[in-house]
Amino acid sequence: MTQNTAHAPFLSPQPPANPSTAGPAQHGWQGQVVRLTRGLIACGPGRAERVHRRAITGVQRGFDGPRTIVVLNPKGGANKTTATLLIAATMGMYRGGYTLAWDNNESMGNLGVRIMTTGHTNTAMDLLRDLGRFDNGHSIRLGDLDNYVHPQGDAQFDALASDLDPAGVSTIDGPAYRRLFGILSRFYRVLIVDTGNNMRASNWEAAVETADQLVVVSTIREDTGYGAAALLEGLRQKGHADKVAQAVTILTMPATAVDPALSRRLHDHFGQLTRAVCDVPYDPAIVTGGPLNIHSLAPQTRRAWLHATATIAEGL
Hints:
This protein has helices spanning 28-36, 47-59, 80-95, 124-135, 174-187, 202-210, 222-237, 241-245, 260-273, 299-313; strands at residues 67-72, 99-103, 150-151, 158-160, 190-194, 213-219, 248-252, 276-280.
């Protein structure tokens, strides 16, 4: 007689380890002890390393579909493009690709001059013009986008620039944004959308409508802070109060020292309007204006952007 016995499934689910404590320390004096004793003394990670591990786990959290992050400030010089690229780089490095930084400026934007370019000069405008051939009975594949986006090396994200022709007469409007979004969101897990300075542009409004998470960026200066505050008020008046309440504010230092009273005032103001306020330090590698490589930033700058990106991911 055959006896039925219950067996555990071959691939039994394992309880997830606590990411902040799992494994021995790798950094700090605890990590040094582990290395010197070749693991015989397995010190756990210190507080700073636990915080760092939790941030990585936050960025790596699972989503149940593609997510769109929209970076905003109607004032030029607010570091929107910098934020777009560094959020994308952090997402790409810790999530493993399928991340796109997309310049949704209706005309010329800055993202195209801050990325590593690869073999072509095509932009979102060229992709828009060519969408017809993909819609003409042909199914588009990810590889078909290679002639429009620029892979950013070991940062593991792609970049799609806006029109770089100063004599160009075409612009991206709301319907054009939605057509591009419909294609791009099929192939990328995370879209980080850089925006222009015109809150009344239809492509700007379309980006806000598709956003799963708004990120408001400002330097610690009166002018960009005012622009961010006006932006949030305008969004609330347009019916986006819920998205404003869940937004993340990133405050960047424009120099090695800032006015502490102004910094406190901006923290207080945006802390009351948005879900979280994150600080990132001044870094000379950011202000050169040329191609931006996350690996060229100081360790404390990379950590700050990691924690900011983890905070953003909480809203996705």
